[in-house]
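REQUEST FORM: STRUCTURE PREDICTION
Request ID: SP-0412
Submitted by: Lab K.M.
Chain count: 1
Length (residues): 150
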Amino acid sequence: MHRVYFSLGTNLGDKEANLRKAINEIEERIGKIVSLSAFYTTQPWGFESGNAFLNAACGVDTSLSPFEVLEITQQIERELGRTKKSVGGVYSDRLIDIDLLLFDDRVIEDPILTIPHPLMCKRAFVIEPMVEIAPEVIHPLTGKKLKDYM
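STATUS: Completed
RESULT:
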C-alpha cells in the first residue's frame, strides 16, 4: 500500500457539500481515507475573487500508481463540475480542486505530474491542513518535516 496526500479546495456553490462529495469519491475510487483535516476558510491565492475558499487535506492508503491516482482525481473534478484547469499560473473560481501533494516519499517530475507538489509548502491553505494531519511527514526534496514549514 501507498500513502498519498491530497489538498482539496472549492469556492463556488455549496462548498462543504463539494468537499464532502470529493472526499467520498476519493474513498470509493482511490482508497481508504486514514486522515482528514478540518475545513479551513481561506482567501483566494493567485487571483482576485469575492468568493472565499473552503480547503482541506486528507491522507489515503491506496494500491494505485501515482498516474492512476491523478487520472481518477481529474475524473472526479470533471464529474463534480470543474470545467477548466488552471494553466500557466492563471487561477480562477472553481467548484472543486484536488491536488496530489505527496505519494509515499517519491519524487516524480513528469510533464503531467510533479510530486511533491511544487507549491505545497508556499501555500498556507495547503500546509496548515497538512500539518494538522501529518506534521511529522518528511518532504522528500528538502528533508524537512511538514510542521517545520509553519
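NOTES: The beta strands are 2-10, 32-36, 40-42, 53-62, 97-103, 108-110, 113-115.
Reviewed by: T.R.
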